[in-house]
Design brief:
With 119 residues, the chain is an alpha+beta fold. The chain has a 7-stranded mixed β-sheet. The protein is globular.
Amino acid sequence: MWESDASHYSEVKAAEIALLSSAVRNNSDNVSSLLSDDFAEIGRSGRRWSYLETVAALQGEQPRPVPKTSEWLFNRISPELVLVNYRIHGTDHDSRHSSLWEIAGPVMRFHQGTIIPTD
């Protein structure tokens, strides 16, 4: 069941937001602590990224402000896992994001971002 109340998932939401921060993204130890060893991502471009590719790419990323987010939803799909959906408001377009988190840790197992087309 999808929930908009993040109170049960405050650590997961905080970790997701931390991964949007350049201070975390540029530090491979910080990123590694939040991603599972078998992490995978499908980026907004459609490219599939592995754990190692993601850690390396984020370490070299240019600093940027933390984007504004909204429309947070949480769906506990097992005792150990929660699926998270939210919207990022970008400067030139918005995007929707989905992440699969192990609640203990928390540790992200999978992420996908999709650009929202402008009409």
